[in-house]
Amino acid sequence: MQPGRIIGPPLNSVKERGKEMNSLFRLFFRPAQGAASILLVRLAVGLIFFTQGILKYIDPNMGVVRFTRIGFPHPYFTANFVGAFEIVCGFLVLLGLWTRAAAVPLLIVITTAIATTKIPELFRANQGFWYMVSDARTDFAMFCSLLFVILAGGGAWSLDAQRGREKANLLSF
Hints:
- By secondary structure, this protein is mainly α.
- It has one domain.
- It is built from eight helices and no strands.
- The longest helix is centred in the first third of the chain and has 25 residues.
- It starts with 10 loop residues before the first helix and ends with a helix.
- The model has no long low-confidence stretch (mean pLDDT about 85).
């Protein structure tokens, strides 16, 4: 054996394995494509709020009855008011039109929903923290998704971005 020689696989084999590991690392940990990932978040948020808004009008148990049970004053007005915001703002988020502005009222709606329906579960007999955590998982996901949409905007595949490109083209003439 020669002095200073490392025992192990040939150097070329180690380099090839390093390249394979590097390409696997890049495959699994490369940055997400902003346009595609923002579109997926917008689809989830927009469709969920849009459909829940419609349900407040067509199913009394999801609208007026629910708002009465929670204890909102004027439950008929409140259910229709919230439903209208969910339909309009959910559709705007879905399209990516005025995305950040449309997400703000939805953030208020979901925050109110958490405060009025999930937080009280902490203090009810036979419910408590773990029940509330399980019951609030969708609301929490919507809350975080709305914060993301507010911070990130509609993304490259949105009507907001299309309007920006058209405006830039008009200014370039």
